[in-house]
Amino acid sequence: MSEYSEPTSQPGGAPPAPLWEVFVRARRGLAHTHVGSLHAADAELALHNARDLYTRRQEGVSIWVLPAAAITASSPDEKDAFFDPAADKVYRHPTFYEVPEGAAHL
Amino acid sequence: MYGNDFPADDTSSGLLGEVEAAETALREAAERGRHGAAGADPAAYFAEVIAADQKVEPRDWMPEAYRATLIRQIAQHAHSEIIGMQPEGNWITRAPSLKRKAILLAKVQDEAGHGLYLYAAAETLGVSRDELVDLLLAGRQKYSSIFNYPTLSWADMGTIGWLVDGAAIVNQVPLCRCSYGPYARAMIRICKEESFHQRQGYELLHTLAHGTPAQREMAQDSVNRWWYPSLAMFGPPDTDSTHSAQSMAWKIKRFSNDELRQRFVDMCVGQAEVLGLTLPDPALCWNDERGGYDFTQPDYAELMRVIKGAGPCNRQRMEHRRRAHREGAWVRAAAAAYAAKQASKKEQASKKEKVA
Amino acid sequence: MTAHVEQTGPEPVPTAPGTTSAVPGMTPAAPKPVTKRFEFVLGLADDALVAAQRLAEWCTRGPEMEEDIALANIALDQLGAARLLLTYAGELEGAGRDEDALAYRRDDREFRNCLLVELPNGDFAVTMAKLFFLAAYQVPLYTALAGCGDERLAAIGAKARKESAYHLEHASLWVRRLGDGTDESHRRMQAAVDEVWPYLHELLTPDPAAPVDPATLRADFDSVVSRVLSEATLTVPETSWTPAGGRNGLHTEHLSYLLAELQVLHRAHPGASW
Ligand SMILES: [Fe+2]
Ligand SMILES: [Fe+2]
Q1: Distance from CA of C55 to the nearest CA of B (A)
Q2: Mean pLDDT of all residues in C168-186
C-alpha cells in the first residue's frame, strides 16, 4: 500500500479472540438461523457483539453464540433491553429517505 | 432470472430489486439440489457446481487459485469497509443537525459491520481475521483507493453516499450472485444496507443543492472533486485488468470493469440532473449507437499512484488504523486475561463439585 | 425504587439572570417563561447530547472493531434520547426553539449538563468509567420518569430506560474485564474510577422541586456501583472534592471546545437547513 511498512503483531500481545458462530431467531415461531460469525474473548462479550453486529435493524428476537463446543443463548427476559432500542432507528432503512421525483436507480 | 443479471430498466425495482432477485436465485439454486457427489473427481464436481450456478461452500473442494483469489478479494473488500469509515467518521462530530448526525453515525457504524461480515466470510476460507488485519496494517494488502481522498466539506458526506456508495453498489450487486456461498450471502446483506447509504447521501446533497448559495457551491465543489475518483473505483480499464478473465470463468466476477463503469455513468447522469448539479465532464454526451453515455475516463495513472501509496491520505488512513489497533492492545489483552481467569475458575468449581 | 414524582403542571418561576427585566416599571420585550421543568428537561437532554458527542468521538478508534460498533450504538441511543428531550424542552419553553436551535445555538453557559459527561474521553477505561456511572444514574432516573405524571416525560423515560439498561450492562461488562484483567488494565481502570469519582456528587445533588429528585436515586445508584466495582476488584476512592456547577451553566474548560466542534458548521451558515 505505502512505501513504508512496519511489523504490527506485538510480541507478547493478547492471543487472538476466539471465533463465535452467531444464530439469530428472526421472529417468534422461526428457528434460529446462522447469520455469520464474530470474535470475542468470552461468551458475554460475544453476545453483546452479536447483538450490535447482526441485529441493528431489528433482525432478531433471540441470539445464540456458539464457540467450538458450547451454545450460549441470550435469555428471554433480557429481550426488551436487548432488542427494543433498534425499533426507532427508522433512518437505517432506505424507505426513510425521500427520493426526489425523477431520480432513478437509487 | 437466469442469464441476465441486470433486469430491464425499471425505475421502481432499482438496485434493491436486483439484490432481491439475487437472493431468490440463491434459494432456487439451493432447492435444485445437487445430483451426484464429489466422488473421485472433485475438480469435475467443482466445475459442475459452477456451471449449474450453484454455490461453493466452505468445506467443498476448490482449486487453490480460486481460494486465493477469493481471500484476496474479500479481504481487500473488508479492509475497504474498515478504512472507509474514516473519511466520513471525520464529520460525525460536526454534523450540522442532530438528525444528520444520527444518520451519519449509523452509516459509518454500518460500514464497520460490513467489514466484519466480510472478514467472517474470508475466515470460512481458512484464513484468520488477525492475519488479514496484520497484512493490512503492514501495507501488504490493499483497500479501495477512493478512501485516500480527503473529506473537505460537509457536502462530501452527500457525495460519498451518492457516488462512492453508489459505485460500490454497482460493483457489488453482481457479487450477490458470486459462486462462493458465504461471500454471496454477505454481499446480499451488505447491498441491502448500502441502499440506505446511497439514499441518505443523495437526499443530503439534494438538500444542499437546493439550499443557500453557499450550500449549493459546497455541493458542486464536492461533486467536482469526487467524480473522477469514483469512476476509478471500478479499477483499471479491461485492457489492463489482470484478474478479470479467470474470475469471470469462476463466476466470482460477472461483469468487466468497463461494463460496470459504463453502467454507473449511465445511472448518474439523470441523477445529477435531478440534483441540479453538473458532472465535471464537458465530454459527457449520449451515444445513440452504443446506447450509453460517452465520457472522459478517469486518470488511471493517478489511480495507480494512489494505490501505490501516494494519494493525499494514504499515510494518514493507515496511521489512524494502526494507532487504534496499537492503543487497543491493552484492552484486548485484558479481555483475554479475564476470560482465561473465568474459565479456570469454572474448571476448579466443577472439579470441586465432582469431588463432593 | 421510590422517587419523588411531581404531579402538577409546569409552573413558571423566574430564574436565570438576564431573562427578567432589570428596569423597574418596564415590561421586558420578550419575557422567557423559564420553568423549573424546562431546566430539568434541558439538563437531561444536555447530559444525553454531550455524552453522545463524546462517544461519537470514538468512532473508528475503538480497541476492537466490534467495540466501534457497540460505542456507536450507545452514542445513537443517547443522541435519540437527547433529541426527544430537547424537542420537549423547546415546547416547554414556548419560544419556538427546536432540537437544533437548542443544540447548536446555545453557548456553554446555557448548557445544563452535568460535568461528568463533558470530561474528555481519556483512554478506554476512562470512557467506560464515565459510561458506567452515567448509566447507573440514568437507569433509575428514566425508570422514575416512566412512572411520573408528565405524559411526555413518562414516554421518553420508558423508552430510554431500556436503552440505558443495556448501556449499564455493556459498561459493567467492561469495568469487570478491565478491573479484573491484566495488571495494566487494573491500574488503568482504578485510575479512571479515581479520576471520575468526584463528579458523581453532582449527579445526585438533592432537588426536591424537580420532577424526579436526584437524591431519591441514590439507593439504586449505590447498590449497582458497589456491586460492580467489587466484582471488578476495584476500590471506592476516598475524596472530599465535589466539583459541580453544570446544572447552573458553570462548566469545565472542556465543554466550550466540545461545543465549538459540534456547532461550527451549523453556525457558519445561519438560517440554512440541512
Ligand atoms: Fe459498506
Ligand atoms: Fe456504504
Answers
A1: 10
A2: 98
Enclosing H/E stretch for B329? helix B329-355
Task: Please give the DSSP secondary-structure letter assigned to residue C240.
Answer: -
> Per-residue DSSP letters for A57-73?
TS--SEEEEE-SS--EE
Helix, strand or coil, per DSSP, at residue B40: coil
Residue ranges of E strands in C38-187: none
Q: In the predicted model, what is the mean pLDDT of chain C?
A: 90
The closest of C69, C73, C110, C102 to C85, measured between CA atoms, is C102
**Closest in A41, A45, A85 to C77, CB measured:** A85
Per the CB < 8 A criterion, the answer to whether C108 and C251 are in contact is yes
Is A36 an interface residue toward C (CB < 8 Å)? no
Confidence band, pLDDT 50/70/90 cuts, at residue B16: confident
Q: How far apart are CA A62 and CA A26, in angstroms?
A: 7
Average pLDDT value for residue range C113-134: 98
Indicate if the pLDDT at residue C108 is higher than 50.
Answer: yes
Residue B274 CA to residue B285 CA, distance in Å, equals 17
The amino acid present at C256, given as its one-letter code, is S
Distance (angstroms) between ligand 1 centre and the Cα of B120 equals 15
Radius of gyration of chain B (CA): 23
Nearest to B247 by CA among B167, B163, B179, B150: B179
Q: Which residues of chain A have pLDDT under 70?
A: 1-14, 68-101
* Residues of chain B positioned with their CB less than 8 A from the CB of C272: 96, 211-212, 214-215
Chain B hits for A45, CB-CB cut-off 8 Å, are 335
How much is the pLDDT for A93? Answer: 58
Residue B12 has pLDDT above 70, yes or no: no
Torsion sign over Cα C250, C254, C260, C263 = negative
- Measure the CA–CA gap between B172 and B191, rounded to whole angstroms: 7
Q: Looking at residue B32, what is its pLDDT?
A: 72
Q: How much is the ipTM here?
A: 0.91
Considering only CB atoms, C65 lies closest to which of B95, B116, B214, namely B116
> Grid coordinates standing for A17?
479472540
Q: Which residue has the higher pLDDT, C232 or B126?
A: C232
Chain centroid, CA C93 distance in Å: 19
φ/ψ (deg, to 5) at C47:
-55, -50
- Segment B143-155 shows an average pLDDT of 97
B-contacting residues of A 10-69, CB under 8 Å?
10, 13-17, 19, 36-42, 45, 53, 56-57
Between vectors from CA C263 to CA C102 and to CA B158, what angle results, nearest 5°?
A: 110
> What is the model's pLDDT at position A87?
53
